[in-house]
Write a structure and sequence with these properties.
Layout (H helix, E strand, L loop, with lengths): L6 E2 L2 E2 L4 E4 L6 E3 H11 L13 E8 L2 E8 L2 E9 L3 E6 L10 H9 L5 E3 L19 E6 L2 E6 L39 E9 L12 E9 L6 E7 L13 H17 L10 H26 L5 E5 L15 E3 L1 E3 L4 E8 L3 E10 L2 E3 L10 E3 L6 E4 L3 H11 L4 E5 H7 L1 H8 L3 E4 L1
Parallel strand pairs: 12-15, 17-22, 18-24
Antiparallel strand pairs: 1-2, 3-8, 4-9, 5-6, 6-7, 7-8, 10-11, 12-13, 13-14, 15-16, 18-19, 19-20, 19-23, 21-22
Helix pairs in contact: 3-4
Length: 431
């Protein structure tokens, strides 16, 4: 991506010194900095513990991080620009495209107390117009000791080169079981079994889980019309001893037990194991999704079905809390995804849309259900998506209010291929 010609302290960015990021990131390693500095200078104290400058202030101007420093009574200003695969650095005293000066080196070293510095928070390409201190995409908010960069509300889905995108190479539809006849349903009794759709926020770190179904035992009111009280969640076959179950419920219970085994999201405390953990989580997601397709027609035949926002897997145990259990319904209709790509002048916006039986629905942003979606108007009625690609796209777009904005400065190089991939499987209208 070509950098615009901005002159800082009499130097264009083409005269800033370049330092390579770790591949696929905006991270600069101290080992890389020292290797480069060691090859240029003998007096930097590379490999030792040099005196580091004191940071007087931090600011962000025209997309550049500006660090005002003081070192041995001398003051200087260091300018840092963040590109796709490298860092640009210069300063008010020295440093150009061939020379990494002492002030620039020591300032960067002071930022790497952990052996590296991730510059991602300062990476906002094409977001600052030439000669304009303010950006239409972000706000730079001053605070004690520095500043904070916030996306403007309208651009909560702003895409930056290097951001992760869902895989759109192949869309495989998971077969859906047919809706069963009701003659196999169990007869109602004063104490019986119902089913709960347990859901939570996947981004919560503590004990979070993927959406799954879990049976519960309840006591019914007179005439067996509604639930009088919830007795317990059913965690194993022995929890329903003494309760008459239909063949459908026996089968559904087996599916529910299998779901719970897969529901917990794994985390990796060791960064080297992150890739393995991700693979396990994705495999569990897909296995759960297939179980949902088996469970849906059985679940829809049950008289008592509820939704529970669990706040974590640790809460799906013991006795359900009455106030947390909400009546819920499901539909066998298949939700259809489509997209709208709008030209908004200096950026494009890609919107995700939802239809059921040709009717447009509005995603309920308060209740992301991963494999399942519901309408904002009818948040109690859920639809099961049709393919792994569907739920990964919905999950990605749900975190950005179902709209992604892409500045034209890097749309063609970094985002157009994604749109073309989406277009092979879904309708994309251009407006």
């Amino acid at each position: 991506m070509k950098t615009k010609s901005i002159t800082i302290a009499g130097k264009p960015l083409s005269r800033f010194y370049q330092l390579p990021f770790e591949k696929g990131s905006r991270m600069l390693r101290l080992a890389v900095l020292d290797e480069i500095a060691g090859g240029l200078h003998d007096n930097f104290g590379v490999g030792k513990k040099p005196d580091l400058p004191v940071t007087q202030s931090l600011s962000f101007d025209k997309g550049l991080l500006i660090v005002n420093i003081k070192l041995e009574g001398e003051e200087a200003r260091v300018y840092i620009g963040i590109e796709y695969d490298h860092l640009l650095v210069s300063c008010s005293v020295d440093t150009d495209e061939t020379y990494l000066g002492r002030y620039a080196y020591l300032t960067l070293r002071a930022m790497m107390r952990s052996g590296y510095c991730d510059f991602k928070e300062y990476y906002w390409p094409a977001c600052f117009a030439l000669g304009n201190k303010r950006s239409k995409y972000v706000d730079v908010v001053k605070k004690p000791g520095g500043f904070k960069i916030n996306l403007k509300k309208k651009f909560s889905g702003l895409f930056r080169p290097g951001d992760d995108l869902p895989d759109v190479t192949e869309r495989v539809v998971v077969p859906r079981e047919r809706l069963l006849d009701k003659h196999g349903m169990a007869r109602l009794a004063p104490v019986s079994i119902g089913y709960c759709f347990a859901n939570t926020d996947l981004q919560n770190f503590h004990s979070n889980h993927y959406p799954f179904l879990i049976p519960y035992v309840f006591a019914a009111t007179a005439y067996l019309k509604t639930v009088k009280s919830f007795k317990r969640f059913v965690l194993n076959p022995h929890d329903v001893d003494g309760i008459s179950l239909s063949p459908q419920q026996e089968e559904l219970n087996s599916i529910c037990f299998a779901m719970k085994q897969l529901a917990a999201i794994r985390f990796s405390a060791n960064g080297s194991q992150a890739e393995t953990t991700t693979r396990i989580n994705e495999a569990n997601q897909l296995a759960l999704f297939k179980l949902w397709n088996k469970a849906l027609p059985l679940f829809m035949q049950q008289r008592f079905t509820h939704y529970c926002y669990s706040y974590g897997l640790r809460n799906v145990a013991g006795k359900p809390v009455m106030r947390d259990m909400k009546l819920v319904e499901f539909s066998m209709e298949v939700p259809v995804l489509s997209f709208v790509l709008k030209d908004e002048g200096d950026y494009y916006e890609l919107q995700l849309k939802l239809k059921v039986k040709g009717k447009s629905l509005h995603f309920n942003t308060d209740k992301p259900g991963l494999f399942l979606v519901c309408d904002r108007v009818k948040p109690y009625l859920w639809y099961l998506l049709e393919a792994e690609m569907d739920y990964k796209l919905v999950w990605f777009f749900s975190r950005v209010n179902f709209r992604v904005q892409v500045p034209k400065g890097y749309y063609k190089e970094f985002f157009e291929g994604f749109v073309e991939g989406v277009e092979r499987w879904y309708e994309v209208k251009r407006g």
